[in-house]
Amino acid sequence: MTATPPIIARAQAKRRESLQDGTIESFTLLAHPLKEFGSQPRTIGMILLDSGKRVLAPLLVDAPMIGMHVHPRMRLSYATKEGLRVYEVAYEASALKPVAKEEERVFPGYILALTGPSGVGKSTVSRLLATMSAEYTEPVPILTTRSPKQGDEGEYVYVSKNEFDALRKQSKIVAMTEIPSHSEERFYGYRKDDIEAIWNKGKLPVVITEMHLLQGLASHFGRRSILSFGLLPPGRSKRTMLSHLLHRLRTRGRDTEEHIRDRMKNAERDLAFFKERSDLFDHIVVNEDLDSLMAILTKNVPGLSNG
Amino acid sequence: MQRAISLIGSGQTRFGEWWDKSLRDLMAEALDSALSASPATALDIDAVIVANMLGEFTNAQAHLGTLASALLPHRPPALRVEAACGSGSLAVHMACALLESNRAQSVLVLGVEKMTDASQEDIASALMAAADAELDRPSGITFPGIFGLIARRYMHEYGLTRDELSLVSAVHHMHGKENPYAQFRSAIPPETISKSPLIADPLRLLDCSPISDGAAALILSTKYQTPMRLLASQVASDTVSITERPSLTSFPATKEACEKALREAEISLDDVGAVETHDCFSIAALINLEDMGFANPGEAIRIYKDIHEGKSTMRLNRSGGLKACGHPVAATGIKQIIDVAKQLQAHEERYGIAHNFGGAGATCGVHVLASMP
Question: How far does the CA of residue B246 sit from the closest CA of chain A (Å)?
């Protein structure tokens, strides 16, 4: 007794009518969703849409809360055995997304974005770029409310939560996120001024980033402003990729075991994100070894190959 | 009731996993025990009403009215009723209509479900046919998920804690231990319930009624009279999808059916000595008690706390409820009426209520029984 293609088609038409923002009224993490949706647990929310209608839909929110404001996104859900591709409307959090003003939507220049789970080698790549082509690229400092750690290499600007909130209210932060952590409140973001200063120097801003910040940048500056690379750890399966990351995190010795646990949890989500939001990446690259990775970057980033 | 309707005989199979029994075997077993307990003979049965939800899906069998009728020597007229988990009480409601209109003088009502032949994921999918195929199903949700949403919202509105919720199933299992027909006859402490595997956060495995095989039968008659009378039979409906309702934490169909049934029976809640309520999920039992009027919104957990601590003698789901007895979907509503009758007899109480619903409280049937020695 599964849904037939005509039922699905009518249901999808109804869904499209309700592509609008809403508020979470309730949610549940369902361990075993209906079989056609696969065997992964699914977070499903009851959402009160702005029109007053209610819908049940998957939530793409790490820590949903009743009352949280969400906005819709179409995504591929599954394919029926007849080959019909079933799309669904899922909802993601909209509370943390800074609002881009219309006049800022003019094309400002490129940003080179490197996205990947902790331990995949983003910082190493960024260091290499800084030495190889300092005259052409410059890393964008990350604003953070977390406390400084041994091993940080000047990539962070530390601010208090109050300062962070103040900047956010003044629309000086173009992308921000909160990384779930057991030990402290960790907000991260990029300042508009930092990025613009790099452009003004005629250089390419480089961001070492993660999924929420990447989405924030794409929605602020426009997707085409970002030359986006996704970095994957080597390995054929998710399990081997994750064990590679764990190995790298332990050997670099920057994090406590507790932080590593947090990072591994976030890494699993990052890996899923590559698949779900492939539209946000121009190139997805496996970091087998640094030389080949740098070769790929040099080939695909216009300024680097010239330099 | 426009006529005096008596419950003249009843019987059931034990609910559980019956690998060696077919749908027909289960029906025959419940039917035989109902007939042998009644003053009527098989030939007195004027009509058969079968309650069943999943026959086509789990047993490749439709046409269940006639299948049941053929178990009787004279093959009386028969029909089938389906209203998901509320099928049982709907079938009794239909029987009352036949008896009140004098179309029949003795009616056999038979609820049956054979669920364990199918895989759990297929059953979860089939049961979702009781929700809205176009509004609920496309999200991937299952019934545990729907009640997970309801439980989360209830906790948000009323501050119910996870550990408090565990008292509901703990009380039902405590009662089920004494019921020889229950699928699970063991007491389970609340801590074990809180720690059982997560099914649909915040609901855990031991908040959910099981998948079961089973049948229950009763014979209602205006021709034969016994001290066990059916005083009221009421049914109410709501939207099938929870998305079309203003509140997640109350089922208006329960309120309506219960109020009408009490009025029809001309009694108040204070007169009620035994209650069987539809605890398909632990959270449902709390909402039901509030909608029936036994507690104010958000306060039903007090009743379970009192029963658990031995401070209350309220006869609430003394059979073990759906949680401990098992829940062969369409047999449940009929089994509940049998259990209420048993408790009235055993404890010399006068009035009892059986409350049964289908979907997420979308169809509700409430019956009032009276023991009139």
Answer: 9
